[in-house]
């Protein structure tokens, strides 16, 4: 049986979270988004009048 905890110094410190974790398989399977060029964006917005800013 463990002795009762008397103070906070008796507690073991929690592990600090890692600042970098290796990617999980699900993350590495995700495809990267395609970034549109200015010409592609203009052509897309011209084809979609409902998306034009008001």
Would you kindly provide a brief summary of this structure?
The protein has 54 residues and is mainly alpha-helical. The protein has helices at 25-29, 38-47.
Number of strands: 0
Mean pLDDT: 77
Q: State the oligomer.
A: single chain
Number of helices: 2
Q: SSE order, as H and E?
A: HH
Low-confidence stretches: none
Helix content, binned percent: 25-40%
Distance between the termini: 71 Å
What can be said about the biggest beta sheet? none
| Apparent shape | elongated
Alpha-beta classification: mainly alpha
State Rg: 27 Å
Please tell me about this protein's structure.
The structure is a single chain. With 54 residues, the protein is mostly helical. Helix content is 28%, strand content 0%. It contains 2 helices and no strands. 0% of the residues are buried.
Summarize the helices and strands and which ones pair or pack:
Elements: H1 25-29, H2 38-47
Give me some keywords for this one.
2 helices; mainly alpha; 54 residues; elongated
């Amino acid at each position: 049986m463990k002795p009762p905890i008397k103070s906070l110094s008796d507690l073991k410190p929690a592990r600090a979270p890692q600042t970098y974790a290796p990617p999980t398989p699900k993350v590495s399977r995700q495809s990267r988004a395609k970034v549109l060029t200015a010409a592609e964006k203009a052509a897309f917005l011209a084809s979609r009048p409902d998306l034009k800013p008001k």
